[in-house]
Amino acid sequence: MGEASREIMRKARQQVPEWTPSQVKQALDQQSGSNEQEIVLVDVREKHEWNEGHIPGAIHVPRGFLELQIEEAVPDKSKTVVLYCAGGVRSLMAGSTLQQMGYRNAISMSGGFGQWKNSGLPFVQPRLMTDAQARRYSRHMLIPEVGEAGQFKLLDSKVLLIGAGGLGSPAAYYLAAAGVGTIGIIDADVVDDSNLQRQILHNTSRIGEYKAESARETIEALNPDVKVVTYIERLDETNVARIIADYDLIIDGTDNFPTRYLLNDAAIIANKPVIHGSVFRFEGQLTVFKPYEGPCYRCLYPEPPPMALAPSCAEAGVLGVLPGIIGILQATEAIKLLLNIGEPLVGRMMTYDALAGEFSELRLYRDPHCPACGENAHPEDLPTYADVCAL
Amino acid sequence: MATVRLAPVLRSSAGGSKQVSAQGSTLSEVLADLYERYPALREQIQADSGEGLSRFINVYVNDQDVRFLQGLDTAVGPNDTVILLPAMAGGHQE
């Protein structure tokens, strides 16, 4: 250390109070029970030092970015900001900088992280992405609303798709690309050549294979981070509660009313959001049913139409790209819910008219007398009705 | 005349139109005018004649669900839009 830097250090020591690691620990323990976080712990070391371990609850602002980032990280300049580095020198100079910036209670931890660790105090090692993950998700990491923490959240998330068909295909494909860590797919059907006009998870060589298995092959080829759980069965009263229990949210791509009502009621009981979509010819619609925060499917439609009035399911037809659009919008809503960002389509029905090239929106309301989610509701013993399409 | 927008599944009952005009100052009058020209629509909207709206259809006046307005008595002005949206079956058709 040269004379000039010794002089800087000497001045900093006169201005910036220092706490030992055990004093810092004590202060942190004292505030741990209360909601008011008076002390903010800031690690000013470099990224590679942080990655090898840091004090639990600390935020990371490398000293090189201190002036640029600290006001965003700690907007309240009256807070007690405890700074630490590896040995207590850089944090002292950082404290002096914070004082110049108007922070009234900047403190440097003497001895730094080295002394903290040597005193046997607790530290954590941050979760690290592999280099392959960091490259794969780099475009997510650049968005502040996702970032590294959001990407880990997606990797830890579990989404169930009811059906690997027109809506489920694009939804699952994009969720897998986004790195949603577990994707469950329930579908008892096999791939038919009439599916391939829109069900992009499958291909010509898979005709005759179970859709759930074909979906797994496509997803695993796209992203090895994703665990695919397949259920080659139909959703019914005997399996619905068990299957949905493992997931954070459900994407509904069902083609029939009984499943829709069954899923609605089970999701309310288990308090899981359902992202609902449906398509018909050139038009589609979607909404998010979030239990007790917005309406459920029974609030909208307390009963299905009688068989005579339901459009013939096999003859309905759909422009192949249309479920693609609606399914991708469902995946988008799923990601928003998983990351807790933006305004999910709760209580709003979005409709898309491909021929007109028009999106529009309708407000949906909870029915206070809804038999599934209203007052005194009993979602566990409601009828699910006969399958108007299967009859 | 009020504008009535029909969900795709209803259009075959109305000569294929996506949007039609109908007369009346309440929802029930507007619907009556509609049934006169397109009788097949009645069972899609009010399956049991004389009763209220069917439980498998949602009707909106200017984007507001009429169940939370005055139902069939909801006022409809000449510049208002009525939207008819029945439950849709279609997800992934087999």
Radius of gyration of chain A: 27 Å
Order of helices and strands of chain A: HEHEHEHEHEHHHHEHEHEHEHEEHHHEE
- Given as residue ranges, the uncertain stretches of chain A (5+ residues, pLDDT < 50) are none
Task: Give the count of helical stretches of chain B.
Answer: 2
Output the helix-strand order of chain B. Answer: EEHHEEE
How many domains, in number, for the residues of chain B?
1
CATH class of the largest domain in chain A: Alpha Beta
Any idea of the CATH topology of the largest domain in chain A?
Rossmann fold
Q: Judging by the overall fold, what is the CATH architecture of chain B?
A: Roll
What class do helices, strands and sheet pairing of chain A give?
Answer: alpha/beta
Percent range for β-strand residues of chain A: 15-25%
Main sheet properties of chain A: 8 strands, mixed
Question: Biggest interface, and residues per chain?
Answer: A-B, 47 and 28 residues
Which overall shape of chain B is indicated by the principal axes computed on the Cα atoms? Answer: globular
> Into which percent range does the helicity of residues of chain A fall?
25-40%
For the record, give the distance between the C-alpha atoms at the N and C termini of chain B, rounded to a whole number: 41 Å
Description of the molecule:
- The complex is a heterodimer of chains A (391) and B (94).
- In chain A, 37% of the residues lie in helices and 16% in strands.
- In chain A, the strands form 2 sheets. Chain A has an 8-stranded mixed beta sheet with strand order 8-7-6-9-10-11-12-13, with helices on both faces. In chain A, strands 1-5-4-2-3 form a 5-stranded parallel beta sheet.
- The longest helix of chain A has 19 residues, at 321-339.
- With 391 residues, chain A is an alpha/beta fold.
- In chain A, helix 1 packs across helix 5, helix 10 (168-178) runs parallel beside helix 11 (211-222) and helix 10 crosses helix 16.
- The model of chain A has no long low-confidence stretch (mean pLDDT 93).
- Chain A folds into 2 domains: 3-118, Oxidized Rhodanese, domain 1, CATH 3.40.250; 157-381, 3-Layer(aba) Sandwich (Rossmann fold).
- Chain B has one domain (2-86): Ubiquitin-like (UB roll) (Roll), CATH 3.10.20.30.
- Chain B is 16% helix and 23% strand.
- A 5-stranded mixed beta sheet of chain B has the order 2-1-5-3-4.
- In chain B, strand 3 (57-61) and strand 4 form a beta hairpin.
- Chain B is globular and about 25 Å long.
- Chain A binds chain B through residues 163, 165-168, 189, 192, 199, 252-257, 277-283, 285, 300-306, 309-311, 313-314, 316-318, 323, 349, 361-365, 367, 388-389, and chain B through 7-9, 43-44, 47, 54-58, 60, 63-65, 67-68, 83, 85-94.
